[in-house]
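Milestone M4 deliverable, item 7.
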Amino acid sequence: MDAGLINGVLFLDLKKAFDTANHKILLSKLGCYGIRGLALSWFQSYLSNRKQICKVNNSLSTFQNITCGIPQGSNLGPLLFTIYINDLPNSLEITEPAMFADDTSLTATGESSFEIEYKLGVEIQNVKTWLDANKLTLNEEKTEYMLIGSGKRLKQIRNDPISKIRDHIIKRVYKKKVLGLEIDDKLQWTKHVEKQTKKISCSIAMLRK
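Output delivered:
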């Protein structure tokens, strides 16, 4: 941005990411990271023989085996999912990934919106290939992108880059909440500061009562 370039950020959204992680793939990846023998057997035991039941009003379903998904509600859940997706960057050619649990974004830098369109288009296909191999699904409706740059550079963009997932056109956004931060396409932080100021003011008012 300081160099006068445009940054295209693709915000990936995975469908039920924690619930659809494949156990066999996860155990295989744990083995690749050096977890073997008794330790790997412990993880296999931790993931297996889990059951679930569904209740609607006063009716209960029969117990069903859970064959995929990472148990949530413990410190181990996010760690296992991080291990599961840790090799996603190996599938990328051009962009820089930023990953935190199931929040993943890809950043491409270019001189023009056409260059951004090309780079994001290439990486979307790479991500799709990786997701298919790892039995995860991209939520096409919630996957979005943002062009970040100076006000002058953004005004020079006549047409939005057209990035697609199959036949679905990815939506361009001008502001986005990422890990608790409200960012906009000029990185001005105004909205985030206003929101946090309002929260603090409300908290102070409650303390005074």
